[in-house]
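Hello again,

I reread your note about wanting to compare the complex against the isolated chains. To keep things tidy I'm splitting this into two emails, and this first one only covers the full assembly. Below are the input lines as submitted, including protein chains and any nucleic acid or small-molecule components. They are followed by the predicted structure of everything together. The single-chain runs will come separately.
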Amino acid sequence: MAVGVIKIDRVSLKKAGGFMGINAMLKGLTVTGRHFFKNLFGWIVGKPQVFTVMFPEQDIAKPPSFRGMPVLVQMDSGKERCVACGLCEWACPVDCIHIEPGETEDAIERYPKVFDIDMGRCMYCGLCEEACPEEAIVMSSRIEIAAFTRAGTIWHKTDLLTPVDELPRRLDYVRRGYQR
Amino acid sequence: MAEEQKPAEAAEAPAPSGPASPILKRLVDGFGDKILSTHEFRGDATAIVDRGALIDVCKLLRDDPELAFDFLMDVTAVDYIGRVPRFEVVYHFYSLAKNHRVRIKVPLEEGDPKIPSVASLWPSADWLERETWDMYGVKFEGHPNLKRIYLYEEFEGHPLRKDYPKEKRQPLIGPGAVHKIPENDDLTI
Amino acid sequence: MADDPKNGSAAEQDALDLDFETMELKVGPSHPATHGTVRIQLKLDGERIVWSEVEVGYLHRGFEKECESGLYYQAFPYTDRLNYVSPMINNVGYALAVEKLFGVEVPPRCQYLRTIASEVSRMSDHFTCLGACALELGAFTAFLYGVEARELVWDIHDEMCGARVTCNYVRIGGISADVGPEFKAFVDEKLAQIAKLRKDFEDLLLSNPIFIERMENTGLLPKEQLIALGVTGPLLRAAGVPYDVRRAQPYLVYDKIDWDVPIGERGDNMDRFLIRINELNQSTRIIQQCVEQLPDGPVDLNDPHVRLAGKGRVYNKMEELIAQFKLVTEGPKPPVGEVYQAVEGGNGELGFYVVSDGSGSPYKLRARSPSFSNTAALTPMIQGQMLADVIPTFDMINMIGGECDR
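Full-complex prediction:
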């Protein structure tokens, strides 16, 4: 295996254009024409080849690794998995997570009384998910976070709680790295 | 506290026969006690040079055929607050012909952060020194155009100094600017 | 300014006939034909530039201050935002610097994946640069094909790390997630699509006489001057200097892969353009070989002081749980010292200088950004040239505001 040095070819540039750029014109028309007819045909047969996506109407395919907004995992019992250890709060580079712990008489004694994420500051880095020792906060595929007020960008615990069965893809993806 | 902030000294392991790297050997042979100390932490050859000898050291680095440092890759400073001397200006050189690197550090006193400019030897120092002046307030004497590069001229202080608070706000400038920091800052919720 | 020596004797002759004065023109900070947020002040004699000054800093966000106030692993999202069109290279560079500080090396699979990540990002960088260059010279269709190819490149980003731009992929001592078994087929498919679009892109531009006329013999600077100005990357290679950090001081697995460093002869904008086109080709080669040779094994360092353990162990073992808490709250603690690690970024040598005081956050983190040094070379490059030459020259410098201003 070797790393070589090659000299780039500039000679073919000279003749590429042809007489008065005729070649260039024909080539350009061929390329753009091919794209045009491909797109037109795709539109006629109902299988659009265009790259653009009509976003709100048409959803984009997201891979399992996709990092959308962080959400809290809700167990089947309706409780959150979070035990308010505060690691995600530590890990967050922009300090957008705010937790106030509380205690109950349940089997899992600790729970977050308050769990707020300021989505106006969150940058979807996923460090909270990586830090969490309980698989309680995961990156969902949700991305619609727009709000009309600044206060509206703060998501409270009730908004963040997402049932386990709505997150199977992400949880499977996270669990792939369990035994590393 | 001051002891903790002396990375260079702590990492240094002075061998009795002097530095192993031929670059550092060459510098120590040529300048003697003007080279305050040397170390090779993780293979990065580093020499700490007295301010007075900087230009001569740089000339040797550039012109000596054995060293031939034709690239001045980076100029920056480090603020070791609480330590004497407080500042250190750090130069990173690279040699295209020899494919080796060296780091030159120049300690500077807090009350006198001045250092001769190397912009006449490497034009790349022009912007890099301006940046260092902007961020750390180190004056480069003989620089052709030493003014702030990122920030505006009215900016107060030098932001990368350790005693510059991260949250500090600057007074607004320009026409119609109100020269006070709003007490109830509505940017934080 | 009439007696400026740069004007030459022909201009002096004109001056006898015409009473002229230089015109001041300020391009930017937000100008449709500039590549980033930058202000270029020009003094023009007719259409010829007699004096120029570049003002940067419009995107200064205090990258270093922000990183110094956080823990080591918290700096990764910020490094994404240095050169935001090739975020993974910044991640890799920073991770390599911190690993050098620790004196550790990541497992082979991780090295291969990091190499793929770097090259994918380099393709994204070059497609953006070339596409934007075409756009600013009036070739809008070529820009669309370039950006479409970049979207496909970002699909690979997305598959690897779950984000298209703000990747945050690499970690100290590992990467955030391993790729699945279907990765090879996915990459091969995307690379084939990208190759088609690149062919279209080349066909549109490289035979176009107008485009060639605007690029040829503009922005010339001899290589001695480029070296003195600290210019690296495609700009330097276009002038015939085969300096590439990947070749000169190999890191990751670049020395185990078959690839070439393209160099130019004249060092004008056309050479720079062709170098970038060719590097897309080389990146494709590197990615294909890496995907082919991708070894099995762990991707993360098994060292609880550097890298978080797998969640399976964190959930079930006490030591790993404690290590998880300590690592997240205190950060990895490298030994006292300082290192400089250079990687080849999209536009040249990207270096990270990290000073550690033994605590969990970097005492000093400095990014030597290629865009900064390259942008400083704009003034000599356009000196004495026509006003219209500023656009292709500045395009080929490819100043990325986030990296230049940090």
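For quick reference: The radius of gyration of chain C is 23 Å.

B.
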